[in-house]
Write a structure and sequence with these properties.
The chain is of the alpha/beta class. 41% of the residues lie in helices and 18% in strands. The radius of gyration is 25 Å and the shape is globular.
Amino acid sequence: MSVLPTRLDTASPDFAEARRSMLAALAEIDAEHAKALAGGGQRYVERHRARGGLLARERIELLLDEGSPFLELSPLAAWGSDFHVGASVVTGVGVVSGAECVLVANDPTVRGGSSNPWTLRKSARAAEIAEHNRMPLISLVESGGADLPTQKEIFVPGGRTFRDLTRLSAAGIPTVALVFGNSTAGGAYIPGMSDHVVMVRGRSKVFLGGPPLVRAATGEESDDESLGGARMHAEVSGLADHLAEDERDALRIGRRIVARLRHRKAGPVSRGPAAEPLYPAEDLLGVMPPDLRAPVDPREIIARLVDGSEFDEFKPAYGGGLVTGWADLHGYPVGVLANANGVLFSAEAQKAAQFVQLANRADTPLVFLHNTTGYMVGREYERGGIIKHGSMMINAVSNSTVPHLSVLVGASYGAGHYGMCGRAYDPRFLFAWPSARSAVMGPRQLAEVLSTVSRQAAERRGQPYDEEGDAALREMVENQIEAESLPLFLSGRVYDDGVLDPRDTRTVLGLCLSFVHNAPVRGTDRFGVFRM
């Protein structure tokens, strides 16, 4: 392989400015993440501990193999909404008894662990990751069910949670429920539809309707334990497969269940110890300028991600706005597609389509590094076939069956976001840097389009155009689109799996490559019709 050189001047004023901007953005994101880590606040944390309960992340830590990593997913879900950052649930991937598993843990300190619309979206994403990568799903349950004031937004999509569990089981992907407290109403179906169920004596309570609801519906008087306690379900109903003495015992039993699954990866293993990149990850803090219109050579990023900074570039002299090539990342072979200079022309689109086909022929996962303003517009480019060539690239990405990993490092606008495997194209994992921006188009371009439409409408009506109002409209639109294209906004809506510190990108991609190899890695030669 060819070793990538570097021309990044880490002593330059531009690098220093970019680094300061990135660190400031990271500090803002860390502050929001801290809100999720704090749960419902000190008062509710202390109340939960007084009842003898472990916190959600403590349960996860005790369940995981000692010293193994845990990749938390969607930690900023619900940011910018009326709900707590984190959406009252912790999700992620970690190693349990040697097996990589997806974990979903209710946070009982946030409104009793009740589910709101963002909880559902975050949990559904975790189940999707378990399904696509064929990893066991472990639910750490303690929830009062639906957040009733938002029932109109929960009831219909909420059924997907139960559907997902049954589909995972039908596909041979194990599901395990460890019930630590309440699992009521619809939440009762989580243990009900899991393959393996552990309940904690004197603490777990699973029922469709609690004593107040039963009394209102039937007039029957009952207590929690006789109606849905752990012992009753272990000895009478049979819903509990294992009766634990306390939470730690439940986690011990959970680990034994996973050990007995004898889960094996279906994909190829890593080639072994990998050489570190030649250049420090710290440099990635200063790669992306605050103004995303400034050109960035993506090879500087690639050189700090791939093993030994070795990269065999594909078609280096053709379609220079997209860098493509082959490398290893933590011992796994990958194909890389990385945007350069923002715009995708016909050459870049055709180059990408061929490269994706080759990756599928070689059963090689693809890594997409986004920094594009989209496909080129204008009479010359329309006449040259930019629509059919862009469609060719999107066709190839849409039908590719090797795993895709996407990282938004800069701009990711318009159909360029689609062609580079954005969220709608089902990448196995998608992350963003704090420098990323994603929307239909850039704020300035979108404001210009709306201004032009308004101006033309006034001309057709024969009315004078309000230039002062136009300036105010442009400013309002630019500010709105800028705010709605930020990583915090998009991550809050679970449009990505998390916002990364650029220095962690290689590690996170390495973990994700390990995760995707739980499933077979197979390409395809079946693509839609390419318009030539």
